[in-house]
Amino acid sequence: MVDRGQVRRALLVISTMVSVIIFALGTASAGALSPSAGVQINRPVPTSIQDIPLTNQLDQPVSLSTWSGKTVVLVPFLTLCSDICPLTTGILYQVQRALNKDHASSQVEIVELTVDPGRDDPARLAAYANLTGATWQLVTETPTDLATLAKFFGFSYQKVPEDNPPDIDWLTGKPLTYDIDHSDGFVIIDSKGVERFVNGAAPDFKGRLNPKLEKFLSPLGHQHQEHPPKPSYTASTVLGALGLSLHRNLAAAG
User: Fold this and answer.
1) Domains of the chain
2) SS3 letters for 121-152?
3) R_g (Cα) of the chain, nearest Å
4) What does the alpha-carbon distance between residue 72 and residue 160 come to, in Å, rounded to a whole number?
């Protein structure tokens, strides 16, 4: 039997990678296209995008311009994802740990942007951060602003029917009524507000996953943990991209 979720995810990955390739051909100033590593680009992020209002898990108003002077790692996710997102969070743990080890954490802001603003309000984001131990920015926004950000940065998302039987909401204990399929990867924006790097691949987590995140994984999530979808990226990929923006070598994630 064909797994519809896998088919939808494959189509999203293909769509996103095509968008990345087309975008890169029009904007790349240096670096070669590599599906696993991503694309080096040189595109200023306009003020209209940087000033889009966001709200973080502390219920504080923020925007990309809030972190002007820092390099931003922007990552799409949702708190109710049980497939790829826990692995993404695991990679971000490794990235944060490596940045701390290299005394570079003050120069970088990790920002996970929800693609499910209908459910991911600040309270849910705070509960997710408390449950998983995520210490970086988790942000939500209006559906209209999400569409604007997704169009600019080239990631995909779509609301789809929930599986049967439905998964259970970890926060409320109630059955879920819908799911969000989304593309993976990350974007690097440098301290001057210039987009430097884009990656549309799936996370390839190396090492032992935090048990709290392990509990989030569905059977398909465990399958992707053992056999990551291709193309894929690791914590070292993110650190390499950050190093290009920071003009320094960063320690590989352990």
Assistant:
1) 4-246 (3.40.30.10)
2) CHHHHHHHHHHHCCCCEEEECCHHHHHHHHHH
3) 17
4) 30
Record the pTM.
0.86
Using alpha carbons, select from 112, 110, 52, 127 the residue that is nearest to residue 78.
Answer: 112
Cα dihedral angle (167, 173, 178, 179), rounded to 10 degrees? -60
3-state secondary structure string, 152-194?
Answer: HHCCCEEEEECCCCCCECCCCCCECCEEEEECCCEEEECCCCE
Report DSSP state, residue 83: S
In angstroms, the CA 120 to CA 228 distance is 26
Tens-digit pLDDT string for the chain (254 aa): 334 444 444 444 444 444 444 334 333 333 433 445 689 999 999 999 999 999 999 999 999 999 999 999 999 999 999 989 999 999 999 999 999 999 999 999 999 999 999 999 999 999 999 999 999 999 999 999 999 999 999 999 999 999 889 999 999 999 999 999 999 999 999 999 999 999 999 999 998 898 888 888 888 888 988 988 888 999 999 999 999 899 988 877 65
Smallest CA-to-CA distance from 128 within 181, 176, 182, 80 is with 80
The packing angle between helices 235-246 and 85-101, to 10°, is: 50
Angle at 111 (CA atoms; ends 120, 121), nearest 5 degrees:
15
Query: By the 8 A CB rule, do 107 and 73 touch?
Result: no
Q: Which residue, 249, 244, 231, is CA-closest to 197?
A: 244
Pairing of strands 194-199, 186-189: antiparallel
